[in-house]
Amino acid sequence: MPRSLTRDLARIILLGIVASIAIALYATWRIMVQGAQDDARPADAIVVLGAAQYDGRPSPVFRARLDHAVDLFQQGIAPVLIVTGGKQEGDRTTEAATARAYAVSRGVPDASILDEDRARTTLESIHLVKGVLDAADLHTVVFVSDPSHMLRVLRMASDEGITGWGSPTTTSPVETDLRARVEATAHELGALALYFLNGESP
Fold first, then answer.
1. Pairwise CA distance, residues 156 & 153, whole Å
2. Contact present, 49 and 125 (Cβ < 8 Å)
3. pTM above 0.85, yes or no
4. Distance of alpha carbon 35 from alpha carbon 44, whole angstroms
5. Ranges assigned E (strand) in 30-183
6. Are 86 and 118 in contact (CB under 8 A)?
């Protein structure tokens, strides 16, 4: 291979590496900015994204999301709470059912709760939530999840045609553990890249 061609190829590879790093840094910054921003406002519904549950007991991460969503409901942000999440392999109940029971135990009327209980990914949840909203003639939403998750949630919701704002929980155990925060951010970078590249996402 001619030396000039080798040099040009090396430059192209280097530029690709630099561009990839720049994109990753920008995406990381956007994840952090969105996660630090609470845009809660009066809406038709509050949607809380599911997380792990243990035989009907919400995990600490899920409980933090639910506590925040219940607080917003009790503040009058919206008259409807939508809980989400299906079963993982081997589960006896769904994340949505666990969330409903927990919210009711915190004082949310059962009649004020709608659910999406089939999704196993964020993308599926957003898609199915759109159906729940349309069926109930609800148009605006405040989404509740972890800070690192919020950018992806809002982007998917926008692409689905949902008018929504984010209100990340500030009490997630992920936020008090630096390693967990780094891992969560890295997960979101990968999930966003996958979503932008082929429309799929965990």
1. 5
2. yes
3. yes
4. 22
5. 45-48, 53-54, 57-58, 81-84, 113-116, 140-144, 163-166
6. yes
**Cβ neighbours for 32, distance < 8 A, ≥ 6 positions apart:** 147, 185
Joined together, the tokens standing for residue 42 give: 């009066």
d(CA 178, CA 190): 19
| CA-angle at 115, arms to 93 and 156, nearest 5° | 110
> What is the Cα gyration radius of the chain?
19
115: β partners: 83
113 phi, psi to nearest 5 deg: -110, 130
Segment 99-128, tens digit of pLDDT: 999 999 999 999 999 999 999 999 999 999
Q: What distance in Å separates the CA atoms of residue 165 and residue 178, rounded to the nearest whole number? A: 26
2-41 confidence digits (pLDDT tens): 666 777 677 888 888 888 888 889 999 999 999 999 999 9
For residue 137, give both structure tokens: 């003639």
Residue among 182, 140, 202, 194 nearest 32 (CA): 182
